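Table S2 (text version). Query chain:
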Amino acid sequence: MRTAFVGGGTMAEAILSRALERGVLSPAEITVAEPMAARRAHVESTYGVSTTGAGRDAIGGAEFIVLAVKPQNFPDVASGLSGTLVPSQTVLSIMAGVPLSRLCSELGHDRIIRIMPNTPAQVGAGASVWTATASVSETERGQASVLLASFGTQLYVEDEDLIDVATAVSGSGPAYVFRFMEVLTAAAVARGLNPEDAALLVEQTVYGSALLARESAESPARLREMVTSPGGTTEAALRALTESDFDTAVEGAVRAAYDRAKELGGN
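Corresponding structure-token output:
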């Protein structure tokens, strides 16, 4: 499956590295377009793939084109690619907020998949939500699904608006978790734990809790109740979170991210 990556940022590299590791793609099938010479050299030497400085030079002969540029750079990239795409090619966009209608219009192309991945893709534990235009065949959707599964969980949705919801939940969500970890670690250090031990305990607690939630048949609400003894330490902690409007803060964060995704897409 010949694949071109237009843009060589962290997410593109995560997808590239995991797809190679899982054998979904081979180095000979990949070309990466990266304008920065140092980044091109890094990608070429690390993964053994072909590189170029311009997007239009990367896409010739590619079946799939992974568009991994920042949304604000899309107009310039689109103008460089428009007119060079052929009907048999499928574009996979991982840009936050840019809707299918705009992708089709500015690229002059209608075979497009829109994806919202997240940074845990770097360790093969990503969460990707995606949708596609009607022109994308079942075969191409199946190939895209295999590619996305190479770096984590993938979920297809029919309603494109749910991509912006996913942006606010799973796309931005790792930052919410990391911020919680920062604050929890600082609170532990303030009460006597050294930074290394505090970080170890917080990392394992978050990791173990997520793993338990994934593997348990119980809901997160029920798992929370199972930890919370009446009159105990956890109940006191949860009361403090409630009094600090924890739920409202999380809802506000998701709403702000969702609204910003809409703004980025020009909606």
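Notes on Table S2: Residues 173-264 form a domain with the ProC C-terminal domain-like fold fold (CATH 1.10.3730.10). The chain has a mean pLDDT of 94.
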